[in-house]
Amino acid sequence: MVKNKAEWISTFRKVGDSILVELSKTKKSKNDKATEINKRIKELRESEISSISIIARRDAWDNQTLLNEILLLTYASYIVMLEYRNKVWEYEYMAFARRIGELWEPFCKLAFDFPIKELTLIDPPDFDEVQTRIKNDATEYIDTLDLPDEIKDELKRHYDIPWTMVDSGGIKLGLDLHFEQNGIHYNCDFKSGFSSNEKGNTNRLLLVASIYNYLGEIEKTILFVRQNEDENNHYLQTLKNSPYWEVHCADDGYAAMKEFTGFDMRRWLDENADWKNDISVELKQHLERNDLLKYLTW
Fold first, then answer.
1. 215 within domain boundaries
2. What are phi and psi of 228, to 5 degrees?
C-alpha cells in the first residue's frame, strides 16, 4: 500500500519497537543488536519495495512515479535505522559519519535502478579476461618487431615476470555501479568523502581506472562524492587531476546523475528529506550533544 513519508516512518518505527522488545529479552552485545535492527528493517524495506513494484506493474506506473515511492520508503527506513541503532548503541563521531556515507550510495543508485532515461545496468569486466587481452596484445606487438626470435622470446619472458607477481583475485574491476548508455560503458564509484586514511583506496581507484582506460574509449570512469570538493583532502585532488577519473562532488554530482538518469535527485531531496525534523527528538538531542547533526547533509 502506498503511503506518505510520515506513514512510512510510523510503519518502520512500529517494527523497530517490536524488534527492541525481542532484543531486550536476549543477552546479545550492542553490536549484535545493532546488526539485527539493521537487518530486520532492511528486510521490511525490501519486502515493501517488492509490493510497491507489483502495484506499479499492475497500474502501469512510469518509472518516475515508482522511483518517488521507493525513495520515500527508503528514506523513512533510513530514519528509523539510525534512530533504533542509536537506542541500542549510541553513535559516536566516526561510526555516524561512516554510516551516513554508507546509506548515501545505495540511495543514489536507486535512480539508476529505475531510470527515467534509457540505460542498462551491466556487469564489470573480469580481470582474468582483461589480463589475457593485455598480455596477448603485448605478445602480438613483440612478434611484429624486427628482432631475432631468441630476443623476442626473452622480451616475452621479461614481460611475463610482473604478471606472475599479480594476484588476479586481488584486483577487482567491480565498482559501485556499472551501466551502458549510448554505447558507452560507465564505471562509477560513490564516496562519502576523502579523509586522511584514503591512500590505499586512492591507489586502488587509480589502478582500476587505468585498466579501464586501457580497454578503450568505450569505457568511462566516474566518481560521485557526497561532500563538497573543498571538504575533501588531497587524495580527491589526486584522482581529479589524474587522466582517468571524471569527478563530480555534491550538487555537481546530482546534476551529473540527472543527466544520466533523467531524475533530479537534488530536487527530490530538497522537497522530501528533512533529516533534522524527521528524526526523533531523542536522536536529534544525542546528535546535537555530540556535534553530529552536521553530518545529516546530503
1. no
2. -65, 150
Is the residue at 83 inside a domain? Answer: yes
Does residue 104 form part of some domain? no
In DSSP terms, which residues pair with 190 in a beta bridge?
224
**Among the listed residues 25, 78, 39, 96, the one whose alpha carbon sits nearest the alpha carbon of residue 287:** 96
Q: Which residues contact 44 (CB under 8 A, 6 or more apart)?
A: 12, 15, 77
The residue range of the domain holding 73 is 1-99+275-298
Give the C-alpha separation, 80 to 37, whole Å: 9
Per-residue pLDDT at 160: 81
The reply to whether 23 and 77 lie within a common domain is yes
Q: Which amino acid type is present at position 122? A: I
In a domain, 116, yes or no: no
125-141 average pLDDT score: 86
Q: Could you tell me if 88 and 33 are in contact, meaning their C-beta atoms sit under 8 angstroms apart?
A: yes
Count the domains in the chain. Answer: 2
Grid coordinates representing 7 are 506513514
Residues 248-298 pLDDT 10s = 999 999 999 999 999 999 999 999 999 999 999 999 999 999 999 999 989
Handedness of CA 151, 157, 163, 165 (dihedral sign): negative
